[in-house]
Automatic annotation (TrEMBL):
<feature type="binding site">
    <location>
        <position position="90"/>
    </location>
    <ligand>
        <name>DNA</name>
    </ligand>
</feature>
<dbReference type="InterPro" id="IPR020629">
    <property type="entry name" value="FPG_Glyclase"/>
</dbReference>
<keyword id="KW-0378">Hydrolase</keyword>
<dbReference type="InterPro" id="IPR015886">
    <property type="entry name" value="H2TH_FPG"/>
</dbReference>
<keyword id="KW-0456">Lyase</keyword>
<keyword id="KW-0863">Zinc-finger</keyword>
<keyword id="KW-0862">Zinc</keyword>
<dbReference type="InterPro" id="IPR010979">
    <property type="entry name" value="Ribosomal_uS13-like_H2TH"/>
</dbReference>
<dbReference type="InterPro" id="IPR010663">
    <property type="entry name" value="Znf_FPG/IleRS"/>
</dbReference>
<dbReference type="GO" id="GO:0003684">
    <property type="term" value="F:damaged DNA binding"/>
</dbReference>
<keyword id="KW-0479">Metal-binding</keyword>
<dbReference type="Pfam" id="PF06831">
    <property type="entry name" value="H2TH"/>
</dbReference>
<comment type="similarity">
    <text>Belongs to the FPG family.</text>
</comment>
<feature type="domain" description="Formamidopyrimidine-DNA glycosylase catalytic">
    <location>
        <begin position="2"/>
        <end position="112"/>
    </location>
</feature>
<dbReference type="GO" id="GO:0140078">
    <property type="term" value="F:class I DNA-(apurinic or apyrimidinic site) endonuclease activity"/>
</dbReference>
<feature type="domain" description="FPG-type">
    <location>
        <begin position="237"/>
        <end position="270"/>
    </location>
</feature>
<dbReference type="InterPro" id="IPR012319">
    <property type="entry name" value="FPG_cat"/>
</dbReference>
Length: 270
DNA sequence: AGGTTGACCTGTACGC
DNA sequence: TGCGTACAGGTCAACC
């Protein structure tokens, strides 16, 4: 679930619960997820007030009045549960706010992460150092793609999954953007000219924007205690649609690249 | 250096 | 019902 639009929607859903609130308790339930959870995370957050929630790539950022930022990554299976009735085995971090709201970071596969860094030092946080531009920001253009893909022989699908090229795309939205742009996933990066790169950049922006909008339109569902988000209406044109007709009528195909499924239309995507 | 592969974890869906 | 297999939205280290 968690690619850029899902993290963005998560941040927007957490905002009404956390923004301006004092963190009455912050309780890691295990020492690590994908990597160790900083031992001082609890102490640095407890009693602090949340001043801002934002996002970089697929990372959620929670700033506090003490000059710290908690950084969470949802991995493959992470989500925040709001006011859960019970705490389960995969609730790895518990938070209670000054007004008694409770949050649980739930992540069965534990591919996610939790970190805390000084807000001023965010740019130096190791996973951020080499990230490419935000796809919905001003630096992301066809020109940027041209520079990033110059001389690259790897397939465009792999290049778009590389967070150094552009930050925040995952398997679903790469498939969707390539389908929308009419580019075959196996095309070598260096073989894509400016006209198609321009189409690709706009497709990426459009796919992400509409996914965020779809999430945002049902944000009130976020706070359901079961944690089900309910807004993943499957409006995908290619992803998960093997055998179903593309808008051109040709059945969508699925293949495996580097262990990941790729969905594409063999007629529309060249 | 760039490109590719496998490992990390658990849950779920499906075929027999 | 039970068992085995395939697969899942992400990174990152280790290899050619």
């Amino acid at each position: 679930m968690p690619e850029l639009p899902e993290v963005e929607t998560t941040i927007r859903g957490l905002e009404p619960v956390l923004l301006g609130q004092r963190l009455a308790s912050v309780d890691p339930r295990r020492p690590d997820l994908r990597r160790p959870i900083p031992a001082d995370l609890r102490q640095r957050l407890t009693g602090a007030t949340v001043t801002r929630l934002h996002r970089r790539a697929k990372y959620g950022l929670i700033d506090t009045s003490r000059g710290d930022t908690m950084i969470f990554h949802l991995g493959m299976s992470g989500r925040w549960r709001v006011d859960p009735e019970e705490i389960g085995t995969h609730d790895h971090l518990l938070i209670e706010t000054g007004e008694g709201r409770r949050l649980a970071l739930n992540d069965p596969r534990r591919f996610g992460s939790l970190d805390i860094v000084e807000t001023e030092a965010l740019a130096g946080f190791a996973p951020f150092v080499r990230l490419g531009p935000e796809p919905l920001g001003p630096e992301f253009t066809a020109r940027h793609l041209a520079a990033a893909l110059a001389g690259r022989a790897a397939p465009i699908k792999a290049l778009l999954l590389d967070q150094r090229v552009v930050a925040g795309l995952g398997n679903i939205y790469v498939c969707e953007a390539l389908h929308m742009a009419g580019i075959a996933p196996g095309t070598m990066g260096r073989r894509i000219g400016m006209v198609r790169l321009d189409r690709l950049a706009r497709a990426i922006e459009a796919v992400l924007a509409s996914a965020i909008e779809a999430g945002g339109s049902s944000l009130r569902d976020f706070a359901r205690p079961d944690g089900e988000l309910g807004y993943f209406s499957k409006q995908w044109r290619a992803y998960g649609r093997e055998g179903e007709p593309c808008h051109c009528g040709t059945p969508i195909r699925r293949r495996t690249d580097g262990g990941r499924s790729t969905f594409y239309c063999p007629r529309c995507q060249r």
